[in-house]
Write a structure and sequence with these properties.
alpha/beta, TIM Barrel, 8-stranded parallel beta sheet, 33% helix, globular, binds NADP nicotinamide-adenine-dinucleotide phosphate
Length: 326
């Protein structure tokens, strides 16, 4: 893969391509002021980002849409230059809810199609408009849906032209195989968006995905914001790691840039989130240096198999993906 080329895209199994670097847009809604996401997306587009990772449940898709439309009006980008990934939330796994959920994203963004639409988590929740449904005792209201039926509804959305590529997120090997072995499968998942960074390199899942032409999209590629409300802070902060910092010194880069470069250099797409203009720009400056084979191996060896995003609150869901080794 030529990672010095002007347009840093990698091929997907369906013939489309995905920019290897995207901007993550998840921020805790209760900690974020209106307009933050829009400002970040505008800076990102000006910087050269063409891939934006979002979701309806992030509650800021309308801001992503405004930013994209403003940049289009300025003549900075055309719709086809932008790669937007949206996500099907867990309360919408029932086939009849799939298209309306995608349409909510299209309406929020005010676009005709998204480039990629992925099942956000393999666990279904009680269908309805409550995003995080619980009973009167605070217990989660789960739901049983056939993931293959959900997938077929997604395939129909692609046939209707509402989405270019289909993928999944937080799926383990068994759940990927469920889809891959589905009788009459029309479109394979092109990607699996999962946690991936030097402390959690996903060796086995990555190998399995490579064998099936499924691109790994790395969420939390910088080790998350470490908000204890949803992050396991058992391992030390990734960006303080000595090796990443010493390699940073060698290349006149930061630990964050080394962590991102590590993943893109091995064909893993990264979607770092930042709301800070300097860091948004910093995270883009990863195409003008490369790590040696030995350095790549040394970073790979930092893997400690400790997940930061464990989603333990749903660990009793029958489709909780992280009980299995990978
Ligand atoms: N599919 C899923 O289940 C799932 C789960 C989690 C995340 N995601 C997606 O993946 C994206 C990224 O993951 P994430 O937000 O968990 O974590 P991340 O990108 O690993 O880290 C974000 C944190 O790092 C900081 N940061 C950004 N650039 C930095 C730099 N150059 N140096 C130092 N700190 C830096 C950010 O702060 P500032 O904003 O202040 O720079 C923020 O606190 C999300 O936004 C979302 O789009 C998907």
């Amino acid at each position: 893969m030529d990672l010095t080329a002007a347009d840093h895209r990698i091929p997907l199994s369906d013939g489309n391509t995905i920019p290897v670097l995207g901007l993550g847009t998840y921020t805790e809604p209760w900690l974020t002021s209106e307009g933050t996401c829009k400002a970040s997306v505008k800076i990102a587009i000006d910087t050269g980002y063409r891939h934006i990772d979002g979701a309806y449940v992030y509650e800021n898709e309308h801001e992503v849409g405004e930013a994209i439309r403003e940049k289009m009006a300025e003549g900075k980008v055309k719709r086809e230059d932008i790669f937007y990934c949206g996500k099907l939330w867990a309360t919408n796994h029932e086939p009849e809810r799939v298209r309306p959920c995608l349409e909510k994203t299209l309406n929020a963004l005010q676009v005709d199609y998204v480039d990629l639409y992925i099942i956000e988590i393999p666990m279904a929740f009680k269908p309805g408009d409550e995003v995080y449904p619980r009973d009167e005792n605070g217990r989660w209201l789960y739901h049983k849906t056939d993931l293959c039926a959900t997938w077929e509804a997604l395939e129909a959305c692609k046939d209707a032209g509402l989405v270019k590529s289909l993928g999944v997120s937080n799926f383990n090997r068994r759940q990927l195989e469920l889809i891959l072995k589905k009788p009459g499968l029309k479109y394979k998942p092109v990607c699996n968006q999962v946690e991936c960074h030097p402390y959690f390199t996903q060796p086995k899942l990555r190998k399995f995905c490579q064998q099936h032409d499924i691109v790994i999209v790395a969420y939390s590629p910088l080790g998350t914001s470490r908000n204890p409300a949803w992050v396991n802070t058992a391992s030390p902060p990734l960006l303080k790691n000595e090796l990443l910092n010493s390699l940073g010194k060698k290349y006149n880069k930061t630990a964050a840039q080394v962590a991102l470069r590590f993943n893109i250099q091995r064909g893993v797409v990264v979607i770092p989130k930042s709301s800070n203009p300097d860091r948004i720009k910093e995270n883009f400056q990863i195409f003008d240096f490369s790590l040696t084979e030995e350095e790549m191996k040394n970073i790979e060896a930092l893997n400690n198999n400790i997940r930061l995003v464990e989603m333990l609150l749903w660990c009793d869901h029958p489709e909780y993906p992280f009980h299995e080794e990978y």
